[in-house]
Amino acid sequence: MNPLILDGRKVAQSVKDELMAQICELKGKGVTPKLATILVGNDEASKTYVQMKANTCHKLGMESERVFLPEETTTDELLDVIQRLNSDHQVHGILLQHPVPSHIDERKAFDEIALEKDVDGVTSHGFGATTFQLGAYPCCTPAAILQVIDYYNLELEGKHAVIIGRSPILGKPVSMMLLNRNATVTICHSRTENLDQIVKQADVVVAAVGRPKFVKGEWLKEGSIVLDAGYNPGNIGDADYESCYPKSSAITPVPGGIGPVTISMLLKHTVEAAQRQLNTTKTHSNVS
Ligand SMILES: Nc1nc2c(c(=O)[nH]1)N[C@@H](CN(C=O)c1ccc(C(=O)N[C@@H](CCC(=O)O)C(=O)O)cc1)CN2
Q: Where is the Tetrahydrofolate dehydrogenase/cyclohydrolase NAD(P)-binding domain (predicted)?
Protein backbone atom coordinates (compact mmCIF):
# COMPACT_ATOMS: atom_id res chain seq x y z
CA MET A 1 0.00 0.00 0.00
CA ASN A 2 1.17 3.53 -0.73
CA PRO A 3 2.21 5.55 2.34
CA LEU A 4 -0.22 8.15 3.60
CA ILE A 5 1.03 11.67 2.90
CA LEU A 6 0.13 13.73 5.96
CA ASP A 7 -1.16 16.98 4.52
CA GLY A 8 -0.20 19.81 6.90
CA ARG A 9 -2.02 22.47 4.89
CA LYS A 10 -5.30 20.56 5.35
CA VAL A 11 -4.65 20.16 9.10
CA ALA A 12 -3.75 23.87 9.42
CA GLN A 13 -6.96 24.85 7.63
CA SER A 14 -9.06 22.73 10.01
CA VAL A 15 -7.47 24.52 12.98
CA LYS A 16 -8.06 27.94 11.38
CA ASP A 17 -11.70 27.08 10.54
CA GLU A 18 -12.35 26.41 14.23
CA LEU A 19 -10.51 29.56 15.28
CA MET A 20 -12.60 31.83 13.08
CA ALA A 21 -15.76 31.28 15.16
CA GLN A 22 -13.88 31.85 18.42
CA ILE A 23 -12.32 35.08 17.12
CA CYS A 24 -15.77 36.34 16.07
CA GLU A 25 -17.14 35.58 19.52
CA LEU A 26 -14.24 37.39 21.25
CA LYS A 27 -14.65 40.40 18.97
CA GLY A 28 -18.33 40.48 19.94
CA LYS A 29 -17.11 40.92 23.53
CA GLY A 30 -14.83 43.79 22.49
CA VAL A 31 -11.57 41.80 22.41
CA THR A 32 -9.45 41.31 19.28
CA PRO A 33 -6.77 38.68 19.91
CA LYS A 34 -3.35 40.20 19.31
CA LEU A 35 0.03 38.57 18.79
CA ALA A 36 3.29 40.50 19.17
CA THR A 37 6.38 39.10 17.46
CA ILE A 38 9.94 40.25 18.14
CA LEU A 39 12.70 39.72 15.62
CA VAL A 40 16.26 40.63 16.54
CA GLY A 41 18.69 40.95 13.62
CA ASN A 42 18.53 40.41 9.88
CA ASP A 43 18.05 36.70 9.35
CA GLU A 44 16.13 36.44 6.07
CA ALA A 45 14.30 33.19 6.89
CA SER A 46 13.18 34.61 10.25
CA LYS A 47 11.85 37.72 8.48
CA THR A 48 9.76 35.42 6.26
CA TYR A 49 8.42 33.50 9.25
CA VAL A 50 7.33 36.61 11.19
CA GLN A 51 5.73 37.96 8.01
CA MET A 52 3.85 34.66 7.57
CA LYS A 53 2.64 34.89 11.18
CA ALA A 54 1.40 38.46 10.73
CA ASN A 55 -0.32 37.60 7.41
CA THR A 56 -2.14 34.67 8.98
CA CYS A 57 -3.24 36.85 11.93
CA HIS A 58 -4.71 39.39 9.56
CA LYS A 59 -6.43 36.78 7.39
CA LEU A 60 -8.23 35.50 10.49
CA GLY A 61 -9.20 38.97 11.71
CA MET A 62 -6.64 39.08 14.52
CA GLU A 63 -4.20 41.88 15.22
CA SER A 64 -0.45 41.67 15.16
CA GLU A 65 2.42 43.88 16.16
CA ARG A 66 5.85 43.26 14.75
CA VAL A 67 8.86 44.57 16.64
CA PHE A 68 12.10 44.62 14.65
CA LEU A 69 15.29 45.19 16.65
CA PRO A 70 18.77 45.71 15.22
CA GLU A 71 21.44 42.99 15.32
CA GLU A 72 23.42 44.91 18.00
CA THR A 73 20.49 44.95 20.49
CA THR A 74 21.68 43.98 23.99
CA THR A 75 19.98 41.45 26.25
CA ASP A 76 18.86 44.29 28.56
CA GLU A 77 17.33 46.24 25.68
CA LEU A 78 15.46 43.12 24.56
CA LEU A 79 14.22 42.51 28.13
CA ASP A 80 12.86 46.09 28.17
CA VAL A 81 10.86 45.42 25.00
CA ILE A 82 9.47 42.17 26.43
CA GLN A 83 8.50 43.95 29.68
CA ARG A 84 6.70 46.64 27.67
CA LEU A 85 4.71 43.96 25.79
CA ASN A 86 4.04 42.04 29.04
CA SER A 87 2.29 45.08 30.49
CA ASP A 88 0.39 46.00 27.31
CA HIS A 89 -3.17 44.76 27.90
CA GLN A 90 -3.95 44.82 24.18
CA VAL A 91 -1.26 42.16 23.55
CA HIS A 92 -2.35 38.59 24.38
CA GLY A 93 0.61 36.59 23.06
CA ILE A 94 4.33 37.28 22.65
CA LEU A 95 6.72 35.43 20.38
CA LEU A 96 10.47 35.99 20.31
CA GLN A 97 11.70 34.62 17.00
CA HIS A 98 14.45 32.01 17.38
CA PRO A 99 17.40 32.19 16.80
CA VAL A 100 18.52 35.49 18.34
CA PRO A 101 22.07 36.82 17.70
CA SER A 102 24.66 34.87 19.72
CA HIS A 103 25.59 37.75 22.08
CA ILE A 104 22.02 37.73 23.50
CA ASP A 105 21.13 35.51 26.45
CA GLU A 106 18.22 33.73 24.76
CA ARG A 107 17.15 31.78 27.86
CA LYS A 108 16.97 34.99 29.91
CA ALA A 109 14.93 36.65 27.17
CA PHE A 110 12.52 33.71 26.77
CA ASP A 111 12.04 33.58 30.55
CA GLU A 112 11.14 37.27 30.66
CA ILE A 113 7.92 36.55 28.73
CA ALA A 114 4.92 36.52 31.08
CA LEU A 115 3.63 32.95 31.43
CA GLU A 116 0.08 33.93 30.43
CA LYS A 117 1.43 35.46 27.18
CA ASP A 118 3.88 32.63 26.43
CA VAL A 119 1.89 31.32 23.45
CA ASP A 120 5.08 29.86 21.97
CA GLY A 121 5.80 27.71 25.05
CA VAL A 122 9.40 28.88 25.37
CA THR A 123 9.65 29.84 29.05
CA SER A 124 11.17 27.41 31.56
CA HIS A 125 7.87 27.64 33.44
CA GLY A 126 5.94 26.81 30.26
CA PHE A 127 8.16 23.81 29.59
CA GLY A 128 7.69 22.50 33.13
CA ALA A 129 3.97 23.09 33.09
CA THR A 130 3.64 21.37 29.68
CA THR A 131 5.65 18.41 30.95
CA PHE A 132 3.42 18.08 34.02
CA GLN A 133 0.25 18.84 32.00
CA LEU A 134 -0.64 21.91 34.03
CA GLY A 135 -2.30 23.84 31.22
CA ALA A 136 0.53 25.93 29.76
CA TYR A 137 0.80 26.54 26.01
CA PRO A 138 3.20 24.02 24.47
CA CYS A 139 5.84 25.03 21.91
CA CYS A 140 4.18 25.43 18.53
CA THR A 141 6.08 22.90 16.40
CA PRO A 142 5.63 20.08 18.97
CA ALA A 143 1.95 21.08 19.24
CA ALA A 144 1.73 20.92 15.43
CA ILE A 145 3.22 17.42 15.43
CA LEU A 146 0.57 16.27 17.93
CA GLN A 147 -2.16 18.01 15.93
CA VAL A 148 -1.17 16.11 12.76
CA ILE A 149 -1.05 12.82 14.70
CA ASP A 150 -4.54 13.42 16.10
CA TYR A 151 -6.04 14.66 12.81
CA TYR A 152 -5.01 11.39 11.15
CA ASN A 153 -5.80 9.25 14.22
CA LEU A 154 -2.31 7.82 14.35
CA GLU A 155 -1.69 5.47 17.26
CA LEU A 156 0.91 6.55 19.84
CA GLU A 157 0.12 4.49 22.92
CA GLY A 158 2.89 1.95 23.52
CA LYS A 159 4.67 2.89 20.28
CA HIS A 160 8.39 3.55 20.18
CA ALA A 161 8.97 7.19 19.19
CA VAL A 162 12.52 8.17 18.32
CA ILE A 163 13.18 11.91 18.42
CA ILE A 164 16.26 13.10 16.60
CA GLY A 165 17.17 16.47 18.14
CA ARG A 166 17.05 17.99 21.62
CA SER A 167 16.45 21.71 21.04
CA PRO A 168 14.49 23.63 23.68
CA ILE A 169 11.68 24.53 21.24
CA LEU A 170 11.38 21.18 19.49
CA GLY A 171 13.21 18.01 20.50
CA LYS A 172 12.89 18.35 24.29
CA PRO A 173 9.23 19.46 24.46
CA VAL A 174 7.99 17.02 21.81
CA SER A 175 9.65 14.18 23.75
CA MET A 176 7.72 15.11 26.90
CA MET A 177 4.47 15.50 24.96
CA LEU A 178 4.82 12.09 23.31
CA LEU A 179 5.69 10.57 26.69
CA ASN A 180 2.50 12.11 28.08
CA ARG A 181 0.63 10.27 25.31
CA ASN A 182 2.11 6.97 26.50
CA ALA A 183 4.65 6.55 23.72
CA THR A 184 7.99 4.99 24.64
CA VAL A 185 10.42 7.79 23.87
CA THR A 186 14.08 7.73 22.89
CA ILE A 187 15.85 11.07 22.43
CA CYS A 188 18.81 11.06 20.07
CA HIS A 189 21.22 13.91 19.33
CA SER A 190 24.51 14.81 17.68
CA ARG A 191 26.56 12.61 20.06
CA THR A 192 24.29 9.55 19.83
CA GLU A 193 26.16 6.45 18.72
CA ASN A 194 24.63 4.00 16.23
CA LEU A 195 21.81 6.38 15.40
CA ASP A 196 20.71 4.35 12.39
CA GLN A 197 20.25 1.25 14.57
CA ILE A 198 18.11 3.18 17.07
CA VAL A 199 15.98 4.67 14.30
CA LYS A 200 15.52 1.10 12.96
CA GLN A 201 13.57 0.30 16.16
CA ALA A 202 11.20 3.25 15.83
CA ASP A 203 7.49 3.09 15.07
CA VAL A 204 7.45 6.89 14.92
CA VAL A 205 10.43 9.04 13.89
CA VAL A 206 10.50 12.77 14.61
CA ALA A 207 13.20 14.46 12.54
CA ALA A 208 14.16 17.63 14.41
CA VAL A 209 17.88 17.84 13.92
CA GLY A 210 18.23 20.93 11.71
CA ARG A 211 20.23 19.18 8.96
CA PRO A 212 18.81 18.81 5.46
CA LYS A 213 17.88 15.27 4.31
CA PHE A 214 19.63 13.84 7.38
CA VAL A 215 17.32 10.86 8.04
CA LYS A 216 17.74 8.17 5.38
CA GLY A 217 15.14 5.66 4.24
CA GLU A 218 17.54 2.75 4.84
CA TRP A 219 17.53 3.62 8.59
CA LEU A 220 13.77 3.10 8.86
CA LYS A 221 11.80 0.08 9.96
CA GLU A 222 9.27 -0.89 7.28
CA GLY A 223 5.96 0.90 7.93
CA SER A 224 7.21 3.53 10.38
CA ILE A 225 5.66 7.00 10.61
CA VAL A 226 7.98 9.89 9.69
CA LEU A 227 7.24 13.36 11.05
CA ASP A 228 9.64 15.85 9.54
CA ALA A 229 9.91 19.07 11.55
CA GLY A 230 12.88 20.41 9.57
CA TYR A 231 12.88 23.91 8.05
CA ASN A 232 16.22 24.19 6.28
CA PRO A 233 16.99 26.84 3.64
CA GLY A 234 15.25 26.09 0.35
CA ASN A 235 12.33 24.44 2.20
CA ILE A 236 14.20 21.18 2.64
CA GLY A 237 13.24 18.88 5.49
CA ASP A 238 15.41 16.90 7.89
CA ALA A 239 14.30 13.61 6.32
CA ASP A 240 15.35 12.48 2.88
CA TYR A 241 11.81 12.28 1.49
CA GLU A 242 12.73 10.27 -1.64
CA SER A 243 14.21 7.38 0.32
CA CYS A 244 11.94 7.64 3.42
CA TYR A 245 8.62 7.69 1.51
CA PRO A 246 8.70 4.06 0.26
CA LYS A 247 9.70 2.69 3.69
CA SER A 248 7.08 4.58 5.71
CA SER A 249 3.37 4.00 6.31
CA ALA A 250 2.78 7.77 6.73
CA ILE A 251 5.03 10.78 6.19
CA THR A 252 4.91 14.59 6.33
CA PRO A 253 6.33 16.40 3.30
CA VAL A 254 8.37 19.62 3.41
CA PRO A 255 6.96 22.04 2.43
CA GLY A 256 3.31 21.42 3.30
CA GLY A 257 3.75 19.28 6.41
CA ILE A 258 4.45 20.37 9.98
CA GLY A 259 5.38 24.00 9.04
CA PRO A 260 1.91 25.36 8.20
CA VAL A 261 0.41 23.68 11.27
CA THR A 262 3.04 25.38 13.47
CA ILE A 263 1.68 28.79 12.60
CA SER A 264 -1.94 27.79 13.07
CA MET A 265 -1.08 26.40 16.54
CA LEU A 266 0.56 29.72 17.46
CA LEU A 267 -2.65 31.54 16.56
CA LYS A 268 -4.77 28.97 18.39
CA HIS A 269 -2.70 29.58 21.55
CA THR A 270 -3.02 33.36 21.10
CA VAL A 271 -6.81 33.13 20.83
CA GLU A 272 -6.90 30.91 23.94
CA ALA A 273 -4.68 33.43 25.75
CA ALA A 274 -7.05 36.26 24.82
CA GLN A 275 -9.99 34.23 26.13
CA ARG A 276 -8.21 33.38 29.40
CA GLN A 277 -7.05 36.97 29.91
CA LEU A 278 -10.63 38.18 29.38
CA ASN A 279 -11.90 35.68 31.96
CA THR A 280 -9.21 36.80 34.44
CA THR A 281 -10.15 40.47 33.97
CA LYS A 282 -13.82 39.62 34.56
CA THR A 283 -13.00 37.66 37.74
CA HIS A 284 -10.91 40.57 39.08
CA SER A 285 -13.57 43.16 38.31
CA ASN A 286 -16.22 40.98 40.04
CA VAL A 287 -14.07 40.86 43.18
CA SER A 288 -13.29 44.57 43.38
N1 LIG B 1 10.16 31.40 18.64
C2 LIG B 1 10.15 30.51 17.63
N3 LIG B 1 11.11 30.52 16.71
C4 LIG B 1 11.08 29.59 15.73
C5 LIG B 1 10.04 28.64 15.62
C6 LIG B 1 9.04 28.66 16.62
O7 LIG B 1 8.10 27.82 16.62
N8 LIG B 1 9.12 29.61 17.60
N9 LIG B 1 9.99 27.75 14.56
C10 LIG B 1 10.94 27.85 13.48
C11 LIG B 1 10.51 28.50 12.24
N12 LIG B 1 9.10 28.72 12.02
C13 LIG B 1 8.45 29.60 12.80
O14 LIG B 1 8.97 30.46 13.42
C15 LIG B 1 8.46 28.18 10.86
C16 LIG B 1 9.18 27.56 9.85
C17 LIG B 1 8.53 27.10 8.70
C18 LIG B 1 7.16 27.29 8.55
C19 LIG B 1 6.43 26.87 7.32
O20 LIG B 1 5.21 26.95 7.28
N21 LIG B 1 7.13 26.48 6.27
C22 LIG B 1 6.47 26.16 5.01
C23 LIG B 1 7.37 26.56 3.88
C24 LIG B 1 7.69 28.01 3.88
C25 LIG B 1 6.94 28.78 2.87
O26 LIG B 1 5.80 28.45 2.55
O27 LIG B 1 7.51 29.78 2.43
C28 LIG B 1 6.19 24.66 4.94
O29 LIG B 1 6.87 23.87 5.63
O30 LIG B 1 5.30 24.31 4.20
C31 LIG B 1 6.46 27.90 9.57
C32 LIG B 1 7.10 28.33 10.70
C33 LIG B 1 12.21 28.60 13.86
N34 LIG B 1 12.06 29.59 14.80
A: 140-277
Same fold, 32-115 and 140-258: yes
Q: Is the CB of 140 under 6 A from ligand 1?
A: yes
Ligand 1 atom closest to 8 (CA): 30
d(CA 183, CA 162) in angstroms, rounded, equals 10
For the chain, the distance separating the N- and C-terminal CA atoms, rounded to the nearest angstrom, is 64
Kindly list the domain boundaries of the chain, sorted by start residue.
32-115, 140-258
What are 121-174's pLDDT values in tens digits? 999 999 999 999 999 999 999 999 999 999 999 999 999 999 999 999 999 999
Among 3.40.1370.10, 3.40.50.720, 3.40.50.1820, 3.30.450.180, name the CATH number for the domain at 140-258.
3.40.50.720
- The CATH architecture that domain 32-115 belongs to is 3-Layer(aba) Sandwich (3.40)
Q: Which residues touch 195 (CB under 8 Å, ≥6 apart)?
A: 164, 188, 219
Distance (Å) from CA 1 to ligand 1 centroid: 31
HSE at residue 244, side-chain half, CA atoms within 13 A, is: 28
How many angstroms does the Cα of residue 264 sit away from the middle of ligand 1? 11
Supply the pTM of this predicted model: 0.96
Q: Which of 7, 118, 120, 228 is catalytic?
A: 120
Using one digit for the tens of pLDDT, what is the confidence trace for 33-62?
999 999 999 999 999 999 999 999 999 999
